[in-house]
Structure formats: C-alpha cells, structure tokens
Write a structure and sequence with these properties.
heterodimer; A: alpha/beta; Aspartate Aminotransferase, domain 1; Aspartate Aminotransferase, domain 2; 2 domains; 7-stranded mixed sheet; 12 helices; B: 375 residues; alpha/beta; Rossmann fold; Elongation Factor Tu (Ef-tu), domain 3; 3 domains; 8 helices
Chain lengths: 387, 375
C-alpha cells in the first residue's frame, strides 16, 4: 500500500495516541469545580498553552472547536454577525474563490440568509490572492466590509498565500482577516502573532492529532457571535463540554509537528520533488498544479489531459495506491474542482486531476510504487476518456 | 459467463443500492472474481431520500450501495452518467409518449446505459464484465457463443428487459442471480446472512426517474397541457382530454367520458394520434391484435434467416404467446400471433424466445387489428 492522501488525514503520532488514551480513562469535566474537574481543566489549559506556544499565539487566543470546519464556520459567520451588529453597513464579505468548502459554503450561506454581499477576490494562475487585489477590493468601500477570508495554503494545489502581507493590508483598513491554516501547520512557519491575522483555523487530524478536534485562533479584540450556544465555554464563543483527551492529543501533535517542521519540509519535500519528477518522466504532458516553488512541501497536484480523475483514482486504488482527485464531491460524484476553475483551467481539463499528498510516514517506496504505476494508468484512463 | 467461468474476471458490479444487485456483487466475489462496485448517478439533482418504494437514484440509495460494497469488501465508486441517462432514457421516454407510443425505459437503460455507457467505460478501464442483479441466465455454448436465457425461476425472470442486448454486450454481462431457484425472501435471507443492511429494503417499482410515481404529472410538466378530443371509432366526439400522451392503448380508467356507450359496455383506448391530438376509444374486442410490425430489431446472436416460430413476450410482466415472425430487410420484424392478443401498444418492446433462449427484440411500430389497421 502507498498512502498518498495525508492532506485528507494523516496517521496519528504515537505520542498523541499515548496522550489521548491516558486521558480517555480519566474522568472529569473541565468546567466542574471538584478535584476531577480541576484535573481535567489543568490538562486542557496546559494543552492550550502548549498549542498556543507552538503556533505563536497567546493561550487566551485558542478557541477549541470540533475541527477545521467548525472553526471556519465560527470565523466566517461569527465575525460577520459581530461586525454587522456593530455597524449594519458592513455586509460585504471578501473571500478567495479557492477556499475549502467549509469557508465557501459558509460564505454562500451568509449571502443567501444574512444579507451578505460576497465578493470573490481575483487569483493568479497558481490560485493565489495578491495583496493588491485585496487592497483594491477593500478600498472600493472600506466601511462596508465585514471580513475577508483567505487560505494560508491551498489544500488542493498547495499554493502558499502571502498571508502576512494580506493581513497587513486588511488591518490598514481595520478589516479582520481570517485564514484557513489547516494544511499549513507543520509544513510552513505558521506564527499567529507575526501573521497579523484576526483569526486562523487549525485542525488536529491533519497534523498527527485525533479527528474531531480543531481550534480557531482568535485575536483577543474579536468576539464573534457564537454558532453554538450553550454553557459558555471558550470565552463564551464556543459552548460545549471540552474534549479533554482530544485536546491533550491535539496539543502534543501540534507541538511535535511544528517542532519537526523544518526537518519535515526537508525530507518530505525531497520525496515530493522525487514524486513530481517521476510523474513528469512517466507522463510528460502532465501539468503540475499550483505554484511550482512556493507550495506546501508535501503537496503534488497534477492535471492529466484526456483523463477522468475518477478513472485514475480507480486504477491506482486497484494497485494499492491511495490518493485523491483533490476536488470535493457531491454524493460521491466528482465535480470539476472549483479551485482549478478559479485559476482559469479549462473545465474538461479540470476533470483529470490527482492530488498526491505526503506525510510523516511517507517513504521512497511510496514514490517508487507511484512511479511504476502512473504511466500505464494514465494511458488506460485515456482510453476510457472523458465519457 | 456466470458460474461456469474458468478464470477469475475483473468485474464491475452495478449497485443500485437495492438487495438484488448487492447479493449479485457478493456472489461474484464468492465465485472468485475481482469485483469493484459502481453506483450510477443518473439524476443531476438527486433527492436526498427515497420516497416510498420507488427510484434508485437518491443519495440514500448511493449510500446503501456503498455500505453494501464496504461489507462485501470491494472498492466502490459513483459514476456520474446523468447526462447520458437524460439524453438516452428520459428524453427518449418523453419523446416516445409525445409521439403517441408507450416506451419501456428499463430496456432503454440496459441497452444504452448499463450495457453501453457503463460497459464501454468498464472495458476501457480494463474490466472484463459488468455484473447486475437481473434475474436472467447466460449460457456458454460449447462453440463459445453466449446465449441469454430466462432465469431458472420464471416468476422472477427479467430476460425481457435484457432482450435488447446484442452478442457483444452479452459477452461481457454477468447475472449471478439468474440461476437462483429461490424466492425473493430467500434472497433477502441471503443478504441478511451476508450482513448486508439492504436485506430489508423494499423492492423498487415503476420508473426510477419518476420518484413520486406520477407519470402523467411528469409528462404534463414536460409536454404541457394540450386539450384534444376523445372520439369513438366512427369519429364521434365523446369528450376531451388534456394531452394525448396521457393515454396508453388498452387503458380503461380515467377516460372521463360522461355518457356510457350505447351498448353499455366499457370503452378502452384503441388508438392515440399525436398528429391531431385525438384519442380513439371503443369496445374491448377492438383491442384484439392479430399481428404487428416492429423496428430496430436487436439480435442476441446472428439474425434469423427467414420466418420462424417463436414465443413472444410483450411487456415486462406479461405472459408468453405463440407467434410466427420474420425479419424484413434487417430493419423490420413482422409478427403474426396464433391467437389475438390485447393491450399491444406501439413503443413497447417485443422479445422473441426460442424455448428459454432470448432470440432478439424489436420496438413495436404498428399493430394489425382484427378488423382495422391502427397506429
């Protein structure tokens, strides 16, 4: 088996498993006042501090959520509601068109139900929003912008955004900027304070932590309207009993992933480069997606002209090579990727994509397996065509 | 190609989300084949959940199919054939009704989708066969030719809707349920034994793309209302209708003719004329058909030369009748019934059998009435 879908989820780190299992057998609601509660609370708060340190944030800026999707929803909807409540003129939402659906669909929902006007920012052929584009969009009327939202790095094609410059542009106008950093943590130097972002989404299971846990890093001056109302946990911004075992494991994974980042980028980056060479050797007309240089070190994305991504996936799967078309699906039906369409890729071409994403368990053998398989697979998929 | 297969094949199992196709896929695995499951997404805007016992195109059905594939332990994919299905099956269905004919979309789907679009893609991807949950049998003759036969259990036989398959399509078809001499309850029990949650799922009926079962409403939405006359055989106007496409030859109910026939007997739809939007009704005897002409013949093997004696089936759940049939110029089939039959409508398929063997099929274009020629 060659697992090349780490961007979908990556195996948990043994240290995270250990931290989680240790907490699973302990009792205590972190909001309770008795000894069991105090023990749980201490675990949660230590995890918060540890994660904050790993990500360049203050502990009070870490709002735990059930994962990246919830953090994105809280940032987009919560900040929109709060900013509009403070000034009804603020109904414009600026978003990159290459966002994950957790952001895109939240933004669309605001347009459909909350009177938001959504403006998709132009991107370059690599799918990147430039600071000038953001400046131009805000400057047209700075007073009606509720928030802007971008990605630290794109989950499909791996392109890295100039987050610091974008944040600095937004803050010139007093506009909060949210970034989805789910794919960036552990691969890029993600420092919340240095970034200047108002809010940033991170997720546990993409960095060797457990599923079902994530966080919104949230500047202390922002109080989004909650999406989940209830017991008032997490600064009254996100109610719900804290998941002590998941939080403990998330923090361990976060600390390890950020601590090993440079080594990861070097070794996994070298494997990725070998993978890209191998694919281009076997299929010379394959097109590498995203920025060829300024990209996630573990991401490789290709378009294979004349192929259906689904066919490629099926044929590789049959040989034990697990990857992704990179695009979202509706009821299992592959749709041309909105990311590729946003970069101006021809819709027919956009159907023939594959994303290979590596991780901490990747080896040269994985790359070799793909190198041996990809040529014949593409040839066969071409025979099946785009029917 | 079913259980007699000498070597393991790479098989693509079409999985609707129902119990039959799930058991078929499981049996193909058990027979030693390398099976991959595929659910066909046939609607551009699938409903989330099944409504009643109809349809096979909802997201829930897709999930049921995926769940079954997971239990069987085979890879599973959803293939989007909605565009092809709309063109080749749904649009054809509407156009046929508009032309005053009565189509069978399941045959069309087998001919154009399951054993064409799906099969072609499967073959291109390196599969050897497409497996479905139809009740029919493929017999491999000693000379290597494959024959399509009725299922062992005549009560469940579905060879009629497969009668459109030609030799090439048949060569790549696998029907693991065809040899089943068991009741549907026993298939359900087998599904249960295999841990398939679809064991208790209700059977699907009717036309899968008309989720609420309201064929008239479906057609009215697409063809609009077109008021016309209901007349008797002499041309006397008896009433009106809101669209001739809403009628099927042999239909008795829903005519809404105010006054009864002079002889007091019930009246039936005898003829539908889309050209002048007229529906002709008359007594039941006038429905008697002594022969028919059919077009677009498709043969399961080589076309017969000259006239022959066959049994014929005229609808999915209909009985057999003895006929003499002769292909004409390769494009037409002329059929004479030994005894007159009723309720034969242009657009329907006639499937010819030699014993249990499917010989071929054709689309009825005109019928010969005992007294008059119609349609």
């Amino acid at each position: 088996m060659a697992y090349l879908d780490h961007a979908a989820t990556t195996p948990m780190l043994p240290e995270a498993v250990e931290a989680m299992t240790a907490q699973l057998v302990a009792t205590g609601n972190a909001s309770a006042l008795h000894a069991a509660g105090r023990r749980a609370r201490r675990t949660v708060e230590e995890a918060r501090e540890s994660l904050a340190e790993a990500l360049g944030a203050r502990p009070s800026e870490v709002v735990f959520t059930s994962g990246g999707t919830e953090a994105d929803n809280l940032a987009v909807k919560g900040l929109y509601w709060a900013r509009r409540d403070a000034d009804p003129a603020r109904t414009r939402v600026l978003a990159s068109p290459v966002e994950h659906h957790a952001v895109l669909d939240a933004v669309d929902w605001l347009a459909g139900h909350e009177g938001a006007t959504v403006e998709y920012l132009p991107v370059d052929p690599h799918g990147r929003v430039h600071p000038e584009a953001l400046r131009e969009a805000i400057a047209r009327n700075p007073d009606d912008v509720a928030l802007a939202t971008v990605m630290w790095a794109n989950n499909e094609i791996g392109t890295v955004f100039p987050v610091r410059e974008l944040a600095s542009t937004a803050s010139e106008f007093g506009v909060p900027l949210h970034a989805d950093a789910v794919q960036a943590v552990g691969q890029l130097d993600v420092d919340f304070a240095a970034s200047g972002l108002a809010a940033m989404t991170v997720s546990g299971h993409k960095i060797g932590g457990p599923y079902g846990i994530g966080a919104l890093l949230l500047g202390r001056e922002y109080t989004p309207v909650p999406v989940l109302h209830g017991g008032g946990q997490e600064r009254h911004v996100r109610s719900g009993t804290l998941d002590t075992p998941a939080i403990a494991a998330f923090a361990v994974a976060g600390r390890l992933a950020t601590g090993r980042r440079e080594e990861f980028a070097r070794t996994v980056g070298a494997l990725r480069d070998a993978l890209v060479r191998a694919v281009l050797d076997a299929v010379p007309d394959a097109v590498l997606g995203g920025d060829p240089v300024d990209r996630l070190p573990a991401n490789a994305h290709f378009t294979f002209p004349g192929c259906e991504g689904d066919s490629l996936l099926l044929l590789l799967d049959a040989q034990g090579i697990e990857c992704s078309t990179g695009s979202a699906c509706t009821a299992g039906i592959a749709q041309p990727s909105h990311v590729l369409l946003a970069t101006g890729t021809d819709p027919d071409l956009a159907r023939g994509t594959l994303r290979f994403s590596l991780g901490h368990t990747s080896t040269q053998a994985d790359v070799d397996a793909l190198a041996a398989a990809i040529g014949p697979v593409v040839e066969r998929a071409r025979t099946a065509g785009l029917s | 190609m079913t259980e007699t297969s000498p070597r393991p094949l790479r098989v693509l199992a079409a999985m609707s989300g129902g119990v039959d196709s799930a058991v078929a896929a499981a049996r193909a695995v058990e027979a030693g084949h390398d099976v991959t499951g595929v659910h066909l997404a046939l609607s551009a805007n699938p409903q989330s959940f099944r409504t009643g016992a109809r349809g096979c195109c909802t997201i829930e059905d897709s999930r049921d199919a995926r769940r079954a594939a997971d239990v069987i332990g085979i890879p599973f994919y959803v293939w989007d054939l909605a565009d092809r299905f709309r063109q080749d099956v749904v649009d054809d269905f509407v156009a046929e009704y508009e032309a005053g004919r009565t189509p069978n979309p399941c045959l069309r789907c087998n001919e154009k989708i399951k054993f064409a679009a799906l099969l072609d893609k499967a073959l291109a991807l390196g599969f050897d066969a497409v497996c479905t949950g139809h009740y029919a049998t493929v017999v491999l003759r000693e000379d290597g030719v494959r024959e399509l036969h009725r299922a062992s259990d005549m009560a469940k036989d579905q060879s009629y809707v497969l009668g459109v398959l030609d030799e090439r399509q048949l060569a790549h078809a696998m029907f693991p349920l065809g040899d089943t001499l068991t009741t549907k309850d026993e298939i359900r029990a087998e599904a249960e034994r295999r841990g398939l949650a679809v064991a208790k799922k209700p059977d699907s009926h009717d036309i899968c793309f008309i989720a609420d079962g309201d064929t008239q409403g479906f057609l009215a939405d697409r063809l609009g209302r077109a008021e016309g006359d209901i007349v008797d055989e002499s041309g006397t106007r008896l009433g009106s209708h809101e669209g001739a496409y809403g009628f099927t030859i042999g239909q008795r109910k829903g005519l809404r003719i105010g006054h009864p026939a002079p002889d007091g007997k019930p009246r039936y739809v005898l003829d539908i004329s889309p050209v002048d939007n007229t529906v002709t009704v008359g007594p039941v005897e006038a429905l008697d058909v002594t022969g028919l002409t059919a077009i677009k013949p498709r043969w399961c093997g080589s076309a017969p030369e000259g006239p022959g004696r066959y049994t014929a089936q005229l609808r999915a759940h209909g009985g057999e009748c003895a006929v003499s049939a002769e292909p004409v110029d390769g494009a037409e089939l002329r059929v004479t019934f030994d005894e007159p039959v009723r309720g034969v409508a242009p657009g329907q398929a006639i499937v010819l059998y030699d014993g249990t063997r499917v010989v071929g099929s054709a689309t009825i274009s005109a019928t010969v009435r005992r007294t008059t020629e119609a349609a």
